[in-house]
Design goal:
Elements (H helix, E strand, L loop, with lengths): L1 E16 L2 E8 L3 E8 L17 E8 L6 E10 L2 H4 L2 H17 L6 H16 L5 H15 L22 E4 L4 E3 L10 E3 L1 H11 L10 H15 L28
Parallel strand pairs: 3-5
Antiparallel strand pairs: 1-2, 1-4, 2-3, 4-5, 6-7, 6-8
Helix pairs in contact: 2-3, 2-4, 3-4, 4-5, 4-6
Bound molecules: zinc ion (ZN).
């Protein structure tokens, strides 16, 4: 048995009994870890020693090899992030990030992923209302990139040709990236122009590009990409809360389909 003290972000909590909860943390030193937290009462969550979803702090965990659930000895919150829970769009964005990590992160530490999650949740919590969707997109794509699932945006996935800077392409979901006009793309592949490709590259790096356009189309692409490549066909209900506008093309040419 080892006692590990690590920075940790709470992704999900399930009640287990009157006095216990099962908590799933993403931690800096242990990667994804599930713990049984005894003696943390519901309702005590805002007081000393409480743990709230998306809160971040220092966890002290008893680790034993071969155990599915470890044992939480103590959690000292540093960032509470109540702002995320109080706004359904921010909460939806944070929930999308949590779903991806719960599904794909392992027990190996990944400092880059930890930083991406922590910084992205901070920005999501403090963004102005008009920037929330941008921060959701940046957080989602940055986590996808950090986990090694980034789409191909530079070269045609059909023939490998590097696209010209100003070239119009299509985003072939099943191929996991762009297709030039010379290669067939799957039915329903949306057009993606050079500016949208540049914006996606910024989002993959965790940055919201200036003058991000086509929020609805960007959200649809993220939703479709996650569903197809990372969630085994299961669509996340959280996207329903983010943008009511109908999906359009990710296309900055201005001339539509
Ligand atoms: Zn091609």
């Amino acid at each position: 048995m080892a006692i590990v003290t690590t920075d940790a972000i709470l992704l999900r909590a399930h009640p287990f009994s009157e006095s216990s909860r099962v908590l799933r943390f993403y931690t800096r030193d242990l990667g994804l870890v599930g713990v049984m937290a005894r003696g943390i009462r519901r309702g005590a969550s805002r007081g000393h020693g409480g743990v709230d979803t998306f809160g971040e702090g220092t966890a002290v965990i008893f680790m034993r090899d071969g155990r599915d659930l470890q044992s939480l000895r103590e959690f000292s919150p540093v960032k509470v992030r109540f702002g995320l829970a109080g706004d359904f769009r921010r909460l939806a964005g944070a929930s999308i990030a949590a779903e991806i990590i719960l599904r794909h992160a392992g027990e190996e530490p990944n400092a880059q992923l930890y930083r991406a999650l922590s910084a992205g949740l901070d920005r999501l919590g403090s963004a102005g209302a008009e920037n929330i969707v941008g921060e959701v997109l940046a957080l989602g794509w940055c986590i996808i990139h950090t986990l090694g699932f980034a789409p191909e945006l530079a070269a045609c996935t059909g023939c490998g040709r590097i696209l010209e800077r100003d070239e119009m392409a299509r985003f072939d979901l099943s191929a996991g990236g762009v297709r030039g006009p010379e290669c067939p793309a799957a039915d329903g592949s949306r057009r993606i122009g050079p500016m949208a490709r540049a914006q996606l590259l910024a989002l993959l790096a965790g940055e919201v590009p200036a003058r991000l356009r086509g929020h609805g189309a960007h959200l649809t692409l993220l939703d479709d990409f996650l569903t197809y490549h990372m969630l085994g066909g299961r669509r996340l209900a959280s996207f329903d809360f983010l943008d009511p506008s109908p999906p359009g093309e990710i296309d900055d040419s201005g001339n539509g389909r």
